Amino acid sequence: MTKTQIYKFGGASVKDAPAVKNLANILRNRLRNNFVIVVSAMGKTTNHLETILSLKLTNQDYSWNSSNLKSYHLDICTALFPEGHVIFPKIENYFILLHHELNKPVSKENYDEYYDRVIGFGEMLSSRIVMEYLCSQALLVLWQDARELICTNSDFRFAKVDWEKTRRNCQSQLRPKLEQFPVLTQGFIGADSSGRPTTLGREGSDFTASILATSLDAGSVTIWKDVPGVLNADPKLFKDTKLFSELEYQQAAQMTYYGASVIHPKTIKPLANAGIPLFVKSFLHPEENGTKIHKTAKVETVPTIILKKDQILVSFKVTDFTFIEEKHIHQVYEQLQMLKLRANMLQTSAITISIVVDSQLFKLEQLLAKLKNDFIIRYNEGLDLLTVLHPKPDSIPSLLDGYEVLLEQSTRNMVQVVRRLN
């Protein structure tokens, strides 16, 4: 039997009607049985839903934002479908359900669970529109709710996958469908054992593709992006970038760990363990080879630049005239784990622990509240974390020109710098 292929299309590849038509053209000569298509929310829908949640939480009016989001999806449908098509009442119904959720109370304490109930509407809308359009183009696909497949714990916003249950679900529910038709489903979302919606972490649709591939013993995963493949830097931020034609699993995983945005950090490990190759290709130039990530690629030593924006530097200083010990580090990390925050950089001195974390709503104030009695705490927001793998020493100064350096550390194969504009 032919091995399953997984195609994942991100928000940029379905951001408007021309993009959806382009997706259909990519699939036209590739689509067949044993094919799973994973789609993200359209364009910046997730960002817009997060804005609505933030406004609701601070008791501000979000009706304009909600109306605008609805118009955005209906405008795409108007450009894709004839008047009276079944998609229009389906979109209306999703927004009725969304407003029903938004009318429920929310607080800082239940925000993560509430977030997961609301944020997944982006993927549901996108997947319905894309599925209906493909079928209208004689590309028959079945629609599948990912929450019926991806089983997780109840760690809302950063749910951990129950691999055994998910595999059983995929084999019992998805496999029989794939023998008849290709299947289209959503990225990013799952459900806990009680059926409550969960999410896999921001930009988690890549991870969904990896989960499904592993659970179905797939032959390959292809992620379609607006870049030629995996590059040594973000072409929107840096000039003269280099395309990697292939990468070894471990090197690709290292790049994602430090924040390379082209692939979600959790994507690589399951594929590497199963020996499933990952292709990163351009939906703008689908015939080009892109990047192949697999087991036997040679290690690349080209300098790779990774920039994470909107970072917070937090420094914890001991108050009792002792030196930093392991117990202090454990104390800080325990709170990070409780708040689902990851230290993107850690540095210790005799009396201070400094960490760099992503900016997330409420998380900083909760972290400060938990540790303010044990440390003197200082922090800076709105920073960049610059990581250079395999750096050339003479290239670093140009990356810091016009910036103030707040923290820096280096090893033989890596330099990390926390910087802000002068």
UniProtKB/TrEMBL annotation:
A molecular-function term among this protein's GO annotations: kinase activity
A Pfam family that the UniProt record links to this protein: AA_kinase
This enzyme's EC code(s): 2.7.2.4
UniProt keyword list: Amino-acid biosynthesis, ATP-binding, Kinase, Nucleotide-binding, Transferase
NCBIfam families: asp_kinases
Lineage of source species: Bacteria, Pseudomonadati, Bacteroidota, Cytophagia, Cytophagales
Protein's pathway: Amino-acid biosynthesis; L-methionine biosynthesis via de novo pathway; L-homoserine from L-aspartate: step 1/3; Amino-acid biosynthesis; L-threonine biosynthesis; L-threonine from L-aspartate: step 1/5; Amino-acid biosynthesis; L-lysine biosynthesis via DAP pathway; (S)-tetrahydrodipicolinate from L-aspartate: step 1/4
Domain annotation Aspartate/glutamate/uridylate kinase: ranges: 3-282
Natural source organism: Algoriphagus winogradskyi
Domain of life: Bacteria
Protein name: Aspartokinase
Catalytic activity: L-aspartate + ATP = 4-phospho-L-aspartate + ADP
Family the UniProt entry places it in: Belongs to the aspartokinase family.
